[in-house]
Amino acid sequence: MGCCCCGCKCCCILLAAVVIVVGAALGLFASLFPYPSHASCKVDWVFGESCPDVKSKLINQMHKWSSNNCDSRQQCNYEYLGEEGSTIRGLHTTQVLKFVDKFNFTLNPGYDGSCYVKGISESLTPYAVIDFGANYCNLRNLVIGSKLHSGDFAYKENSTNSVCTMYSIAHCNLYT
Ligand SMILES: *[C@@H]1O[C@H](CO)[C@@H](O)[C@H](O)[C@H]1NC(C)=O
Ligand SMILES: *[C@@H]1O[C@H](CO)[C@@H](O)[C@H](O)[C@H]1NC(C)=O
User: Fold this and answer.
1) Which among 57, 114, 146, 175 counts the fewest CB atoms within 10 Å?
2) pLDDT in tens, 116-150
3) Paired strand residues for 111
4) What is the mean pLDDT of residues 161-165?
5) How is the beta sheet containing 78-84 ordered, strand by strand?
6) What's the 11 CA to ligand 2 centre distance in angstroms?
């Protein structure tokens, strides 16, 4: 009887300790994990070109890279899904693991003739958390491939790890 009571007490203490340790570990993980809870990426761009030009360049690039003849740089497997208002939508499938990500770009003209673009890409795999920068690169590769980053035009990109999985360490490996 006395032994059992002691056993229960030990159990309670042990359980409490486990709860505290697990809770602390989860808290630490949440504070150290800098990325969105689901593999995804939001990026904002400003291009010194009109939105109709930016739109047609991005769409052309998706068509150019629509085949499944992949090289090592993921310039393949894009599918253009169409436009709706100021948004164009597409899909990209990664080469090896065949993860499918959906993405879209929303284009808004600025007063000075530039075009403000919000890109968003999201893994269609519900449990995907880490993507090695795939969602970012889905978007960025189209921008670089269509040469929207070059020329005499204004070009700005911004994002952060908290809204773009592995933003700061992604290597899109295109023309670099
Ligand atoms: C763009 O993609 C995001 C994320 O998948 C989605 O929430 C949003 O509704 C999409 N926007 C349009 C206009 O399709
Ligand atoms: C880009 O910067 C603007 C202005 O600071 C901010 O409002 C916006 O949320 C940023 N975009 C992303 C995707 O982080």
Assistant:
1) 175
2) 999 999 999 887 888 878 899 999 999 999 999 98
3) none
4) 95
5) 78-84, 87-93, 100-109, 115-123, 40-47, 155-158
6) 50
Domain count for the chain, please give it. Answer: 2
Residue 124's domain spans which residues?
Answer: 36-169
Looking at the domain assignment, is residue 174 inside a domain?
Answer: no
Ligand at shortest distance from the CA of 167:
2
- Dihedral sign from CA coordinates of 131, 132, 136, 140: negative
Using one digit for the tens of pLDDT, what is the confidence trace for 62-105? 999 998 877 666 688 999 999 999 999 999 998 767 789 999 99
If asked whether residues 11 and 73 sit together in one domain, one would say no
The Å distance, Cα 159 to ligand 2 centre, comes to: 6
- Both tokens of 108, joined, read 């808004």
79 and 140: one domain?
yes
CATH of the domain at 79: 3.30.530.20
Atom of ligand 2 nearest to the CA of 42: 13
Q: Are residues 121 and 69 in the same domain?
A: yes
